[in-house]
Amino acid sequence: MADHGAIGDSRPVSTLRGTEGFFRVGQAEDGRWWLVDPSGRAVWLAALAVGAASRPRTTLLRAWGFAAVSTGRPGTGGGDGMVWLPTAGLSDGVPWVRLGGARLPDVFDPDWSTRVRERAAALCGPLTDDPSLLGWRPDDGLDWAWEEPVGRPTLLQLCLSLEPRFAAYHAAWEFVLALHEGRLDRVAEAWQVPLTNKELLRTWTTEEHGVATLGYRADHRLWTEQWARRYLAGVGAALRESAPRHLCLGPSPGRAATPPWWPDLAAGAVDLLNLRWTPGLAPAGPGPVWVEDFAWTDPRLAALPTEGEELTRVERMLARGRGELRRLAQEPAVVGWTWPRATELASPAPWTDPSLVDGRGEELAVHAEALAWVNHRAPGWRRSPAAPALRACAAAAAPASSPPADAPPRP
Question: Structure pTM?
């Protein structure tokens, strides 16, 4: 791993989470969060998302400046001296709510917490002594149906419209009625809708007619927060029991927007929060953040400005991407990030496909060379004068093989 900084003896990191000899996360005196590797050095990590059939050779990963791989289930990563960040899939095998924009495990199912603990023991327990494992994400792709397109149902309404075989259906109705004197007419009054029976609400949901009144939205927020707390408590307990030496991360986010209160709530329950990249992302919560799925092929990046007028489409894409990664490297809460995937069936248009290798495993230079340039400079950007100096960690020289942070791009 690159020599990115050392923890100073006289000015220690103010907060450390984790176990000595394994990956930890800590906040310096200037407010910046850093990952701390098993040797005690502060590091900034770039990871590549890989699968069992799409992992490039380790020599390529290192040449591109990646020190870590982000994997799906255990068994698809690790080894070869690479840091790895797996997803446990703790909720696999239990009922999931997949309706409308919601994709969540049914945490109200009486067997959910037991199965989560059993799966953590089976998958995470055998790897408890592996210092190259950064930490565990409990599940991936959670969508909270928090802010659906205008007029469509959100999570509480979706749960109230589930089939009775779901525990979340019964829990949702008990929750709502308890808020309103146990009477449906009081619910209708508070929500300001003509709700005369439960089947009518299910009909509205089937027709994608969402309730969006202030009264409903107040109950919707309380319900979503209750679900999140129950989820975080369950997976957190399972991971800390079966993987006590590794960092506990939040679940990988889905494609939909997360609730605005999610970072604060999750940061109090996990060591490291996952956030999906969005343009201008500036985490302001109380804890450290890992940024997932940033690629400069994302069409949303086109909204960011670039310098220079006579640039090709690819040049503009790369310029925006380099600028955004430099900005992320200087965000105090961000400790690392993930490029979304290693390979797919490569598209002939490099501005739409983030692949780094083709189907034969050969390097696709348009992204790979630019990523290598960025990744080797990111530690310098992290320590650059453009952002507050890291005062709790002694500065370390960049690796001899890495060009200086202000060097011009290679032709």
Answer: 0.85
